[in-house]
Design a protein that fits this description.
single chain, 181 residues, alpha/beta, Purple Acid Phosphatase, chain A, domain 2, 4-stranded mixed beta sheet, 7 helices, 8 strands
Length: 181
């Protein structure tokens, strides 16, 4: 199976359209979105609509939760905070509700997806949120998962090993790539 994994769209519709076209061109079986659909870019609504139409799995990023007013903005830099406040003004209630209900975790027998490694406190996504969605502590969850773990850290300056040795995708505006299982 060929998976297309995308994250950090941040409201950049043109970039999102390019990665969707790449996924279609390569005939990806599934499209997985690892968070941060909104924030910074000029087209948050259009990006939400495209992701809802295209993605088989959608996880919440810290910008998504912030746009849905679920995250304290004190951890955001001034530019990110301004972008989130601007985005909130453009989203309709149903779009904010969609962002608010997105999960942080997704797993199958083959792999485990997360927007943050277990136990991460950055961006307002905390251990308690992991526990709430998984029913287990982040540390015990990471130790018990025998499959590969892929996380997306938009604030990470480079690829590095994350919790439990998981690969992290470095942050950028709208990135995507292929994985097979």
């Amino acid at each position: 199976m060929l998976y297309f994994i995308c994250s950090d769209v941040h409201g950049n519709l043109e970039a999102l359209q390019a990665v969707v076209q790449a996924a279609e061109r390569e005939k990806a079986d599934r499209f997985l979105m690892l968070g941060d659909i909104v924030g910074y870019g000029a087209n948050p609504q259009e990006c939400l609509w495209q992701i809802r139409k295209t993605a088989d799995v959608v996880l919440a990023g810290n910008h998504d939760f912030a746009a849905a007013s679920l995250t304290d903005l004190s951890s955001f830099n001034p530019v990110a905070k301004a972008a989130i406040l601007w985005t909130r003004d453009r989203l309709q209630a149903r779009e904010a509700e969609y962002l608010a209900q997105l999960p942080l975790l997704y797993g199958t027998e083959d792999f485990f997806l997360s927007t943050r490694p277990p136990g991460t406190l950055r961006g307002g996504i905390t251990c308690s949120a992991w526990r709430m969605q998984s029913g287990r502590s982040p540390t015990s969850l990471a130790r018990s998962v025998s499959s590969d773990i892929l996380t997306s850290l938009s604030s990470s300056p480079k690829t590095r090993r994350g919790a439990a040795g998981s690969p992290e995708v470095p942050g950028s505006i709208c990135k995507g790539g292929f994985a097979t299982s």
